[in-house]
Design brief:
The protein is mainly beta. The protein contains 5 helices and 48 strands. It has an 18-stranded mixed sheet that branches. It has a 5-stranded mixed sheet with strand order 28-34-33-30-31, with no helix packed on it. Strands 23-22-25-26 form a 4-stranded antiparallel sheet, with no helix packed on it.
């Protein structure tokens, strides 16, 4: 044992007496009942440390004759003089691992809940472990992780007096020594650099790896001795004892920090964040989250800078209790704050949404939503809204047992989606992240331009609706398109048609088809007219002259040409004259051969479409007589001369 510890132990009884005087004006008395055959000396040998003090016992009890005591008589003994009987502590709380060993043994044995810790035992806790030892008088000693203590003395005298002597070689020990229970207890804590004497108080003892010891008093007062110097540490004060140095002057502990905002009733998602106010003189805060109000079963413990945020993540659902304390520049830690109740329930967690994809556009009037199954969820709730604040909700499904949901037909526009899990007890978890999506309408009807008509073809163009759009083109002779003459799927916004043979008004329309194969509405129909061919003109009687034949027919109007034919056959198998004329008349050479000749005419419109031939007109070429022939011969001789 270090020299300073040995020296400190020499002053133990003085310190103990000082602590006792500070907390109790009188030494507690213990009642002993006289049994048959007892005498005062024999009773003193049995119950007090120094039997030779029997005269003092007689004086205390005002015995005129110490040799005359009777069975059933009560004798009072000062508790400080009593031998006491060993008592065992009980493990009332344990988390993680803890073990013990007895003097003379090298074997460490595990400790469990309700196990006894007897006088002489050396006890230690492991990493992230803690343990509480409780004695029958209500005194408790809470060991934090990586703490080693020795229970040197644990005794009681009579029914109302107990004394304990413990050592702490490393770690953190919180002692709660009862004061106002009708029983008296004195406790001595030996540390590597100091000895502490106490009666009826709550305090912390902390031994650092280098042997430095801190004592922080939360209730009552203690006496600390080191290097032959004694200090009295009162409630709300602390002291530090370093190796080779006396205890520092007791210093006032800092108040605990307070939350800047009131804790919520229930926290539904991680991380849970807490902000604390600034405590003057503090350099850091210790924040503890435990499963119990006494902060024994700690699940999170962090030392944070005064401006840092305390965050809670990855803890099970349940009710927790949080305390915070301030740490000053020399490392003394103040009293804990009032316990803050923290209710956490993040399960069932929000599902992971696969569909809709955030900010995606869907070429449909509905969306088949899909998400991953949540293990502890019995059902799901889905909401779809027109606004991100979910004030204008268009779908609210509360009893979905599947991980898929069809929205049904919605208007083409933007929407917001979220889903939550619902547990078997009806508790609804937090909503998923809000996702936005839009329903894209099919292509708009592309306006059709006026058809371009030439003699043989019709070219039709319409508005280009952009990339990846195909077109559905239709032509019909009916405005209602009950019968469709032309039906085409096209990659480009135009098409060329052969001009219809039949005259009349024709209608054309087109629609867009997107990459998903969805077809929009048809455009308003455009029209074009196929002009009918001219009617057969009325033909006048041919005028047969000496050398020519002249014929006229009905004028069919502007832009009409004519197709004129003459044949020596009524069936026009062979055509002698075949002309296309701009005017409604013709002159041609008189046929030389006698016979009957036939004439017919038909009109040709601006589209080069020919109407029906007129009825046949005929004229006769007669054979010449002798006189006529002679006259013609003489005429020819004159021409020769």
């Amino acid at each position: 044992m270090k020299k300073n510890v040995i020296l400190a132990m020499l002053f133990f009884f003085n310190i103990f007496a000082f602590a006792s005087a500070a907390q109790s004006k009188e030494d507690p008395l213990v009642d002993i009942t006289v049994e048959k055959g007892d005498c005062l000396i024999r009773i003193c040998q049995k119950y007090i440390e120094n039997p030779n003090q029997w005269k003092k016992i007689a004086d205390i009890n005002k015995m005129k004759n110490p040799d005359l005591i009777l069975p059933g008589q009560t004798i009072l003994f000062p508790a400080s003089m009593m031998k006491g009987t060993p008592v065992a502590g009980i493990v009332t709380f344990i988390k993680g691992s803890a073990d013990f060993k007895m003097p003379g043994s090298e074997e460490w044995k595990p400790l469990g809940l309700k196990d006894k810790v007897v006088e002489g035992a050396l006890v230690r806790t492991g990493e992230e472990s803690s343990m509480e030892i409780r004695f029958e008088d209500g005194n408790t000693f809470l060991l934090h992780p990586n703490t080693t203590i020795g229970l040197k003395t644990a005794r009681k005298s009579g029914d109302s007096y107990s004394k304990y002597k413990m050592s702490i070689s490393m770690g953190k020990l919180i002692s709660n020594v009862q004061k106002s229970t009708g029983k008296e207890s004195t406790v001595q804590i030996e540390a590597p650099t100091a000895i502490l004497g106490v009666r009826g108080t709550v305090f912390r003892s902390y031994v650092a790896p280098d042997g430095t010891t801190k004592f922080e008093v939360l209730e009552g007062e203690v006496v600390v001795e080191g290097q032959k110097k004694t200090v009295e540490v009162k409630k709300g004060e602390g002291t530090i004892v370093r190796e080779g140095e006396p205890p520092i002057k007791p210093k006032k502990l800092l108040r605990p920090p307070a939350l800047t905002e009131e804790a919520e009733y229930l926290y539904k998602k991680f991380p849970v964040k807490f902000f604390f106010d600034r405590v003057e003189g503090a350099v850091s805060y210790r924040i503890v989250l435990a499963k119990d109000r006494e902060a024994k079963d700690i699940v999170r413990e962090q030392v944070k800078g005064i401006q840092e945020i305390f965050e809670i993540s990855d803890v099970e659902d349940g009710t927790y209790f949080m305390q915070a304390s301030s740490i000053d520049e020399i490392g003394l830690e103040g009293p804990p704050s009032e316990t803050i109740k923290v209710n956490i329930r993040v399960n069932p967690v929000p599902p992971f949404v696969e569909i809709p994809v955030d900010r995606a556009g869907y070429k449909a009037q509905f969306v088949r939503c899909k998400w991953l199954n949540v293990r502890d969820s019995e059902k799901y709730r889905v909401q779809i809204s027109e606004d991100i604040g979910f004030k204008r909700i268009v779908r609210d499904e509360k009893e979905l047992r599947s991980t898929e949901y069809n929205t049904g037909n919605l208007e083409y526009r933007g929407y917001y989606f979220r889903v939550s899990s619902v547990a078997a007890d009806g508790y609804q978890g937090e909503w998923s992240d809000v996702l936005s999506f839009s329903l894209i309408p099919p292509p708009a009807a592309p306006p059709v331009e006026a058809p371009e008509i030439d003699k043989k073809e019709i070219r039709i163009r319409w508005q280009n609706l952009g990339k990846d759009i195909r077109y559905h083109f239709q032509m019909s002779g009916e405005e209602e398109f009950q019968e469709v003459a032309v039906d085409r799927k096209l990659e480009v916004p135009e098409t060329v048609l052969e001009k219809p043979v039949d005259p009349g008004t024709y209608y054309v329309r087109t629609s867009g088809i997107d990459s998903a194969g969805r077809e929009g509405s048809f455009s308003k129909p455009q029209t074009f007219i196929v002009i009918p061919p001219p009617a057969a003109p009325l033909v006048e009687m041919p005028e047969v002259g000496k050398n020519e034949v002249y014929i006229r027919w009905q004028n069919l109007g502007k832009d009409i040409r004519y197709h004129f034919q003459m044949s020596g056959e009524e069936g026009f198998q062979e055509v002698a004259v075949d002309r296309r004329l701009e005017v409604p008349e013709a002159v041609f050479e008189k046929p030389r051969n006698p016979g009957t000749y036939y004439i017919r005419v038909r009109g040709i419109n601006s589209d080069d479409r020919e109407g029906p031939f007129s009825n046949l007109r005929k004229f006769e070429i007669r054979r010449s007589t002798f006189c006529e022939a002679e006259k013609e011969f003489l005429e020819s001789l004159k021409k020769r001369k």
